Amino acid sequence: MTEERNMYLNVLDNDARMKQMNEAIQNYEAELRYMLEASKMQTWRISLERDTLEFYNGLNTVVRSFNLQQMQKIFVDQDNEFVKALSNPTEALKKPQVYVGQMRPMVTQSSTENQWVQINCIPEYDKDGKLLGAFGVWRNINDLMHKQDQLRKETKRARESGEMKTLFLANMTHEIRTPINAIVGFSEVLSSLPGVEEKKEVIQIIKNNCDMLLRLINDILTASSLESGHMDIRPVEVDFAKSFNELFESLRPRVQEPGVEFIKDNPYTTLPIKVDVDRMAQVITNFVTNAVKYTHQGHIKLGYHTETRTVEGQQREGLYAYCEDTGAGISPESQQKIFERFFKVDDFVQGTGLGLSICKAFTDACHGDIGVISEGKGKGSIFWMWIPL
């Protein structure tokens, strides 16, 4: 009876220990499953004998299964050396492997997108050294790859920004020095000129260079505000027909080529609208300034009209302004870059390359549109913009 009693107590003790071990194993599996899910990882196993590739949730629960003939199809890059080697699993799985690439949604459980994964593969042998298959973990690194891609883009943008600033400083040094030298030089000779007409001509040259310097400073200040990601738009009630006429007359002295006619297209006697008239003047002035630089024969035509366009499915009334010239024209390649900062069609023509980028920034801030029409070099061009009112 004592022996039976001791055997019974040993059985109870063993049952208790087994129960405790089962609970520990369940807790361990639960913790492992949590860690795998939190780190976006899953375990997997390949069995050569059963011809299966199985993905597990934890250690025991099979969530997806493929035969070895389907194994290659789960990978996106079929030309990868590791993927191509899977056509012969017995050879491919003999040594540890690390694969980084994309898997199809049927594995990653993504709705439609392929996902970046990192797979660690360890071969599995029996006691006699026979290859049974392989096991390991795979981790979803899609977010990491997207962040790396974003980092590369930001690094490239920062590098390009640094190069643009270097170019900008070099441009500014030259562009600011040119009108200042003209102003200083002609101011010194002004008092020594005997004739009234000669003095008027020199005064006009000084005035033109003062205007050029003022435009440069305005462009630099505007570009500085754009660098901080902000452009101040202040629309006011204005009779734009009257403002346009005044602006046209103020721009007339800039068209000094004897063979170039300056034409006005103002279809309204009065046009009361609400618009940032100073920014509009800046855009139109930049259009005309560019036209003057490249037009030596024919005409420069400045005009505007109201125009209704569809914006996000709604009809919006807007203001369309344009500047047409018969100048040098713009090649299709340059038309793609013409509104980028510091871009110049001709490096030998005076200018900072900021004017048109400022025009685009104003148009974008108003949720409008801007563009250029040119059939190519030597065929003139039309710069236009449209902003909703």
Task: Provide a brief overview of the structure.
The protein is an alpha+beta fold and 389 residues long. The chain has helices at residues 2-38, 81-85, 89-92, 105-108, 142-190, 196-227, 240-251, 277-294, 332-335, 355-365; strands at residues 41-47, 52-57, 61-67, 97-103, 115-125, 131-140, 236-239, 260-265, 272-275, 298-311, 314-325, 369-373, 381-388.
Could you characterize the architecture of this molecule?
With 389 residues, this protein is an alpha+beta fold. It is 45% helix and 26% strand. Strands 3-2-1-6-5-4 form a 6-stranded antiparallel β-sheet. A hairpin with a 7-residue loop joins β12 (369-373) and β13. α5 runs antiparallel to α6 (196-227) and α8 packs antiparallel against α10 (355-365).
Chain-wise SSE layout:
Elements lengths: L1 H37 L2 E7 L4 E6 L3 E7 L13 H5 L3 H4 L4 E7 L1 H4 L6 E11 L5 E10 L1 H49 L5 H32 L8 E4 H12 L8 E6 L6 E4 L1 H18 L3 E14 L2 E12 L6 H4 L19 H11 L3 E5 L7 E8 L1
Parallel strand pairs: 8-10
Antiparallel strand pairs: 1-2, 1-6, 2-3, 4-5, 5-6, 7-9, 10-11, 11-13, 12-13
Helix pairs in contact: 5-6, 7-8, 8-10
Identify the strand order in the major beta sheet: 3-2-1-6-5-4
Fraction of residues in helices? Answer: 40-55%
Low-confidence segments, given as residue ranges, are: none
Mean pLDDT: 84
